[in-house]
Amino acid sequence: MINKLVENIKKTNAPIVVGLDPMLGYIPDHVKEKAFGEFGETLDGAAEAIWQFNKAIVDQTYDLIPAVKPQIAMYEQFGIPGLMAFKKTVDYCKEKGLVVIGDIKRGDIGSTSAAYATGHLGKVTVGSKSYAPFDEDFVTVNPYLGSDGVNPFIDVCKEEKKGLFILVKTSNPSSGEFQDQLIDGRPLYELVGEKVAEWGESCMGDEYSYIGAVVGATYPEMGKVLRKIMPKSYILVPGYGAQGGQGKDLVHFFNEDGLGAIVNSSRGIIAAYKQEKYAKFGAENFADASRAAVEDMIADISQALGNR
Ligand SMILES: O=c1ccn([C@@H]2O[C@H](COP(=O)(O)O)[C@@H](O)[C@H]2O)c(=O)[nH]1
User: Fold this and answer.
1) What is the pLDDT of residue 33?
2) How many angstroms separate the alpha carbon of residue 216 from the centre of ligand 1?
3) How far is the CA of 121 from the centre of ligand 1 (A)?
4) pLDDT tens across 227-248, in order?
5) Ligand 1: does its nearest atom lie under 6 Å from the Cβ of 265?
6) What is the pLDDT of residue 307?
7) Which residues of the chain have pLDDT under 50?
8) Domain map of the chain by residue range?
9) Which amino acids are annotated catalytic?
10) What is the pTM of this model?
11) How many Å lie between the centroid of ligand 1 and the Cα of residue 238?
């Protein structure tokens, strides 16, 4: 799957990911009213609104982008109907040729991680039958439990030719509370980065490993160091747009070949119609506003990479 991700990035010339984080507050009233008219103000109604919102955005952007990142929390909050909307979104994006990164941030003791890995990346056996329950292409993994919490995910990736993005340095303001703690004079995120590079060595695609890392756009200096520590790992970079990251901050997350990083924006794209810059589209044309925001993001990153 790493080969498909790299191929899609080269084809679109767009190292970006659209984050599908559909909070109800971002969904225009006309979409919600239609869904609630059909299913009532219920969890099913919310799930239908989410699905219709996602579908419209994917239909308007899929030709410009290599990948999407649905954030499972935004679906899980609506219970089983929400998870059904998540699955429908995953399947639809794959039909459109997009690589799907499930932002699930899982990680537990080995046996539990194995079940998460099976459910999200692998196949579960029921009697004589086998099913791929969620079937994302990549998932995000929390490495805090150590190797035995991560290895079950790697095992399933090897079997299924899928991939991981492991949290190394997250974009949030308090990420340093633990991640920047010094151990023998070195910050913990560097040690985790070294481990990601080590896990990735036995998981090589054609050019890059299918074991990647998450490093926030909000910490560009750390991104520069981590790029060198993990030269063969793709870096998923959240924090662009709504969290303040800009193209000029991201240059050092990329390798000299212009590859190696993929930048996520969620609210900045899916709720673009709410920003003054894209207000001319109006709520009715929210998906056109998302397309314009994708085009602007690609231009911003391309310009930054061109200027280095
Ligand atoms: O360090 C991290 C890891 C994951 N995220 C996730 O990315 C998106 C960001 O959303 P924006 O609206 O573009 O801010 C969201 O799903 C987070 O859970 C992150 O932000 N930082």
Assistant:
1) 98
2) 8
3) 21
4) 999 999 999 999 999 999 999 9
5) yes
6) 80
7) none
8) 2-307
9) 105
10) 0.98
11) 5
